[in-house]
Amino acid sequence: MNPSRRLRILMVLESEFPASRGGGTESQMRTLGEALRRRGHRVTVLTPRLRDGAQARAGRHFGLAVGRLAYPQVRFLGGLVMLARLAVFLHQHRRRYDVAHVHIAHHLALVCCLLGPALGLRTVVKVAGSWELAGGLLGRDGGALAHVLRPLWRRADAWQAVSTRIAATLVGLGMARERVHAIPNAVDLARYAVRPRPRAAGAPRVLAFVGRLAPEKDLSSLVHAWAQVFGERSDRHLWLVGSGSEGAGLQRRVVELGCTASVRFLGHHDDVADLLAEVDAGVLPSLMEGLSNTLLEFMACGLPVLASRVSGSEDLVQPGQTGWLHEPGDVEGLVAALRAFDAIDAAELARMGRNARAAVERHAATDHVIDRLLAVYAAPTVIGSDAMEAG
User: Model pTM?
Assistant: First the structure.
């Protein structure tokens, strides 16, 4: 495939697009799709027609053509029909696309792996989350079915792993090393720009979490650590931006811990770029991640990050340079990170923020990610393996 010609790219997703309340994978598809279109490539997004999502068979969103495959909303039967309809779609449109980029390694990805070689459709499978490598159809803990399906996964022409940990795991599962590429999620540096944050005398220093208030984000450990370090101090504030199943319980916990004056629940925000201009550092205490878009957005805004040592975060957060790391679920480690954040002066905090911005400029800028994806799209075989450098 000639890498200089305009490509016809089919992006396949198992969830709603566009998502009604955000979503990391959906956000990435938009970022990549828009960037590819600006370079002259044709991008089509293909998704299931979900019960609670948009019902139009076809449409355009953010300048991208979007197709939706209908299927009966009946357990098991509906899934089989969806897989069959994807297979029919790929066969009928086999001459319309050069590459299928599947953004979740699950059922629809398996269909693309099965049919892609026979149809002459180059198949790239993205592994974006640790859950895909845990109990899913790909992971070691997926049981006998995952073991039986392993040869089918190996038919993929290429794998996009968003972190070095995921890349290593894929190789360990038997995927050819030369087909596994550690290519991170992309962040729009123009949208999440470094902005001046002049501090009025006596203004509190602000630490922010942005994301779903969900168990895997381990916000309970965060509020416990916060209470130990800052309690009701008026010069340090924690903002929790987002909504989710843990919201009510976390608010009760904050009251019990006696830190209601320093912890604020700001709810869901569709666009947090303006909000981050008022923040001094980000925090991401997750128990698992693939590569958090929020991490990239924090760093793009010139914010150091207190993060757990999980997939993705460990690639970009360098202790003392771009933030602080602690082990997942380790409250005492998080306490130590909060104390380190508390102790440094404004000049040191600004230095770390500049380092954070430079790290994402090198590794996750949209143009850089698109260059690497285009090389993967265009090359039938790639000699050697890509390694993501640490930030």
Answer: 0.90
